[in-house]
Amino acid sequence: MSTAPQAVDVAPQPVDVATARPRVRPLRWVAGAVLLVLAAQFAWFLVTNPRFAWPVVGTYLFDPNILRGLGMSLLLTVIGMVLGSLLGVLLAAGRLSGFTPVAWACGVYVAVFRGVPPLVQLIFWFNLGYLLPRISLGVPFGPTFVSWPTNSVISSLTAAIIGLTLHEAAYMAEIVRAGILAVDGGQRDAARAMGFTAGQSFVKVVLPQAMRVIVPPTGSQFISLLKGTSLVSVIAMADLLYSVQVIYNRTYEIVPLLIVACAWYLAVVTVLSLGQRRLERHFGKGQR
């Protein structure tokens, strides 16, 4: 009498991780080779094309007019960011308040100034004198105490600061509001149970946690505002781009001067990005 062979279970051999080989991924090698070829071709194009006029770029890179324009761009960025952040905090507080008219008014402001392009806002404020020939102070619908010609008050600098500030405030309001709403409501309740006042609970409990959400987009907004200052050149504001345009309108060396502007924008943005990362690590302590 014959019996059928019985199957024998064979345990899989354990894999030694120390001697395991990584998988060969040919597509990655192909993609890396393609990128390397493209990078080499682009570098060759930059070096061998005489129309870039690199000596001209070196001549104007530290030109006094260019540096003054860069300083004006940085000044507009700082002023617009500081004033926009202060106004944005007030708008965020208004949108989070329980008073419906204030919340609605702040919501309308954010919707309007986020919806209208900043270039349009700059041109509008620069031409405010067409709608309002004089700016006056006095009693509403009553006597006027003092007034000034609008064109003497709204200069290129004033129009640039107003336009950039109002535009930036709309975005900062949403960033601050999102950061505050990201903190769990139980944190406020716990702080109040420990005897903190509303102000103390906000400063010591809510704000440090909200900063983890607020800092990254705020840094991005600061960088975006720096690049957005190039728009003020349309109202004859002597920023970096306008200074470059003045020179190449005289020398007709458009591309080399634009490279100078790009180089300075990239340098400043790189420094700001490094600062933003340090702030993110600082406020992200204790959280992966």
From TrEMBL:
Task: Provide this UniProt record's keywords sorted from A to Z.
Answer: Amino-acid transport, Cell membrane, Membrane, Transmembrane, Transmembrane helix, Transport
Recorded hits in SUPFAM superfamilies, A to Z, give:
MetI-like
Compartments where located: Cell membrane
Q: Name one Pfam family in it.
A: BPD_transp_1
What is the topology of this protein in the membrane according to its UniProt annotation?
Answer: Multi-pass membrane protein
Q: Where is the ABC transmembrane type-1 domain?
A: 70-273
Spell out where the chain crosses the membrane.
29-47, 67-90, 102-126, 146-167, 230-248, 254-275
The source's superkingdom equals: Bacteria
Family listed? Belongs to the binding-protein-dependent transport system permease family.
Name-wise, this protein is Amino acid ABC transporter permease
The organism of origin for this protein: Nonomuraea composti
